Automatic annotation (TrEMBL):
Signal sequence interval, chain numbering: none
Reaction catalysed by this enzyme: a 1-acyl-sn-glycero-3-phosphate + an acyl-CoA = a 1,2-diacyl-sn-glycero-3-phosphate + CoA
Keyword Lipid metabolism: yes
GO BP terms, alphabetized: phosphatidic acid biosynthetic process
Main EC class the enzyme belongs to: transferase
Name listed for the protein in its UniProt record: 1-acyl-sn-glycerol-3-phosphate acyltransferase
Organism this protein belongs to: Planococcus maritimus
Free-text note regarding domains: The HXXXXD motif is essential for acyltransferase activity and may constitute the binding site for the phosphate moiety of the glycerol-3-phosphate.
Keywords in alphabetical order: Acyltransferase, Lipid biosynthesis, Lipid metabolism, Phospholipid biosynthesis, Phospholipid metabolism, Transferase
Amino acid sequence: MSVQEDKQVIKSARTFSYLFGYLPVAATNLAKFKKRKAGMSQQDYSRLIHSEPQKWASGIMKRTGSQVEVSGLEHLPEGPVLFVSNHEGNFDIPVLLSSIPKPFGFISKEEVKKFPIIPSYMEEMNCVFLDRTDRRSAFKSVTDTIEKLREGHSILIFPEGTRSKGQGLKEFKAGFMRIAKDAAVPVVPIAIEGTSRIMEDNNNQIRPARVTVQVLEPVTPEQLESAGVKAAQVVRDRIEQALDTIQ
């Protein structure tokens, strides 16, 4: 094994050790947060809950040695939004949790519930769980997401459905447009590039990478309505154009 390969193995071990080693601390803090919930506004509690995953995600990214460049945070509006991002790699969620100051939940695979502690946090973050093998679960995930947005929570969705692993932007499943239109919230497109170089490109070993996150101008409910059946393509085009600008 070469020196470079040795470094990759060590970096991978440190990253995954932190990923799961932080869970006892997170569990203790979650119990404290829940006790404070009754005396807090929804907005303040969301910020409090978001602070812990943000620390966790920042710690993970630090251990990968990656450089994350974020732009467009000035585009974040007040109130609930549907974040719509391309999905390049497994590190998309840690990158976005550590980069986006606005609290949000996200749609996640049902299998995540098998992990300790993490699902409890995700429920408090207003994440939505999806069983892709069950049509009823897919329908419920849509209605649950709409309900959470109407309640004032922001949600992140990856409309490609699966990771592109750096192989170019895939087609967007149009179902996310129903969520945005029924909830009457803005869509905030996010273009993320470089996460696949952290792990997927390296046989699942961790390497430092340059990652860029671009928060794009919101697409208002009125603009979505005006675009009609082309609304999903409008959002995808904005993300694609942003990705094309990366050098």
